[in-house]
Amino acid sequence: MPNSESIAFYNREDAADLNRRWLSFGRAETNAPVLPDIEKAIMEARAIGREPKVLCIGEGTGVDATKIFTDIFHVPVVAVDASENLLEWSQKNASNPNIEYVHDTWPDLKKIFARNEQYDVVFSSATLQELKPEEHEAAIRSAVQLTKPGGATVLIWPTPPTRAHHSVPDLEILQKTLKNMNHCPEEERLRFSFGKLPDVTNRLALNGEPVMRAYLIIHVPIERKINCESVPSHLPPDYQSRDVHQKSR
User: Which of the two residues, 196 and 46, has the higher pLDDT score?
Assistant: First the structure.
């Protein structure tokens, strides 16, 4: 689960002030480089007659869920966060019929996995760094497992660290994790790319450097099967969603 310091920080923060500040950043504009990948996943779902659905992780205030997914792409969102403070504020003050708020923790996401569902886009911005270093691999793995074939996992995080308890993912570990998840035929392998975005908040990292936002985009091919990975899945053994979507292609 997220670092206890992270949860404590967000539980004591002024949720209204956080929402106001994050809304002022122009979320669609600042995330522009990843929007084409999100759009592609959503359009592919609609092309086969499926109503797209999005999972946003670390989305207590609902800013990205609103400014990107319901405002631009008009898709329903499940917004997950470990902070009860942020979720409670959002449910009272930023309710949206297309956003469902769920209290759950990454990487386990027990409540989400219990639903036996997958999503066309799994999105997380500025949350991966709140996890413990040893949880980064499991976090990526769980996000991909929750992504439908033909969908995309999009993860964004600040780098270098901006708080003492932050743990910026190690690129070497990320690449090793993705390699281990690709023990399958060529057509079923994950396609991924790394990059960096400017940080519109003009923050400085703990080491005094300007903050950038790293991103990782993972495309799950439509042909990918549930048993493709080299390690056990978090999903229930009777999970059939991937096979169903393959047949409906």
Answer: 46
| 150 within 8 A of 221, measured Cβ to Cβ | yes
Sheet holding 212-219, edge to edge: 99-103, 77-81, 54-57, 119-125, 147-159, 212-219, 191-198
Its domain, for residue 100, covers: 4-247
Q: What is the pTM assigned to this prediction? A: 0.82
Beta strand 77-81 with 99-103 is parallel
What type of residue sits at position 164?
Answer: A
Instruction: Read off the CATH number of the domain in which 45 is found.
Output: 3.40.50.150
Alpha helices, H only, the chain: 4-12, 15-23, 27-30, 35-47, 63-64, 84-93, 110-114, 136-145, 171-180, 241-247
105-114 pLDDT per residue, tens: 999 999 999 9
Under a CB-based contact definition with an 8 Å cutoff, are residues 140 and 178 in contact? yes
